[in-house]
Amino acid sequence: MTAISSRRMPARDLEPAFPFSLGWMSTRGLAGLDEQALLSIAGSPPGSEQRAAARELLVTRYRWLVQSCVRRYLHSPEPTEDLMQVGYVGLVKAIGNFNPAICGSLATYARPCISGELKRHFRDKRWQVHVKRSVKELVLEARDATWQLTQELGRTPAESDIARYLGISANELGYARQAELAFQPSSLDAPLAGQPAGTGTLADLLGGQDRRIEHMLDMNAVAAHWGELPLRERKILLMDFYGDLPQTEIGRRLGISQMHVSRLRARALGYLRSRLLDLEEEQQAS
User: Fold this and answer.
1) Phi, psi angle pair for 201, to nearest 5°
2) Do 150 and 159 form a contact (C-beta atoms < 8 A)?
3) For residue 180, what is the domain's CATH number?
4) Structural domain count, the chain
5) pLDDT score of 129 more than 70
6) Residue 58 lies inside a defined structural domain of this protein
């Protein structure tokens, strides 16, 4: 498990390009307004330049809140800049839906909105393979617990600490850890660990073609027409290909000559061959 540092990350590490900007000339007339006045303007009908400028100012003032929510995901495989953009989306949604009469503080209302947007991003948009939603949520809870316990304990928490904190078993946590490996699978072109550069890739470890699979497909095609053969011809083919008996012994067991066995065998194989070739032609034509 990757250790999560408890040191405070510099703010500059969490400041990618701002997602939108109307320019200084559009916002300078509102810069002196307090939060309540800006929220009132931001809640006005769409289409107003002042409305957009007020929202931009609010986003700028609460950039620290986005940074705070993103900080706990700094050691995830996702680039910090992408996480900041996702966080800004949650902040903009919070500003648009905020009702002072219900929740007096924008920061109190926006924090779960930003965190929820980040969790949805990890849960729904970043998995490379299908993982059950409950497991995805457990992976995120384990990450949050790791970050929280690191702050409380002053060290990287053990797996038992995390399981106890979440109220789950060690097996459930282990299952979540295994599922987390699917979040960012290794490339088949990645070099082999512990080997000199250029000596091989993960793709070199994959097995070759399994001839038994091709044989199984061929046998399934034969089985589709096997019942169309007379019983005596089926017995001849079974004793020949599976019993590995010579034609003289087959003839003795069936009470016919070796030459008759040879003719019946050739006729049965010819029929199956013609049926399989017809099947291939039909598949190519379709």
Assistant:
1) -125, 175
2) no
3) 1.10.10.10
4) 3
5) no
6) yes
pLDDT digits (tens, 9 = 90+) for 170-221: 898 988 888 777 666 667 777 777 777 767 777 777 767 777 887 788 888 8
d(CA 248, CA 151): 85
Same domain, residue pair 139 and 100: no
DSSP track, 147-167: HHHHHHHSSPPPHHHHHHHHT
Give the residue numbers spanning the domain of 62.
Answer: 1-126
Which CATH number characterizes residue 96's domain? 1.20.120.1810
Q: Measure the CA–CA gap between 142 and 138, rounded to whole angstroms.
A: 6
Angle between helix 106-125 and 63-71 (nearest 10): 50
Asked whether 199 and 213 are in contact (CB, 8 A), the reply is: no
Cα first-last separation, the chain: 52
d(CA 30, CA 37): 9
pLDDT in the model for residue 244: 92
The Cα 106–Cα 96 span in angstroms is: 11
Q: What angle do CA 155, 160, 165 make, to 5 degrees?
A: 80
Whether residue 43 is found in the same domain as residue 21:
yes
CB 7 within 8 A of CB 154: no
Same domain? For 6 and 121 the reply is yes
Q: Quote the pTM value.
A: 0.43
In a domain, 203, yes or no: no
